[in-house]
Amino acid sequence: MARTPRGERPAAQSPGSVGPTGRPWPDLPQPAARQSSATEAVVLALCNQKGGVGKTTSTINLGACLVEAGRRVLLVDLDPQGSLSVGLGVNPHTREVSVYNLLMSSGAPAEEAIVATSTAGLDVLPANIDLSAAEVQLVSEVAREHTLARVLAPLKAVYDIILIDCAPSLGLLTINALTAADGVIIPLECEFFALRGVAMLTDTIAKVHDRLNPKLELVGILGTMYDGRTLHNREVLERVVEAFGDVVFHTTIRRTVKFPETTVAGEPITNYASDSAGAQQYRMLAREVLQRCPAA
Question: What is the tally of structural domains in the chain?
Answer without folding.
Answer: 1
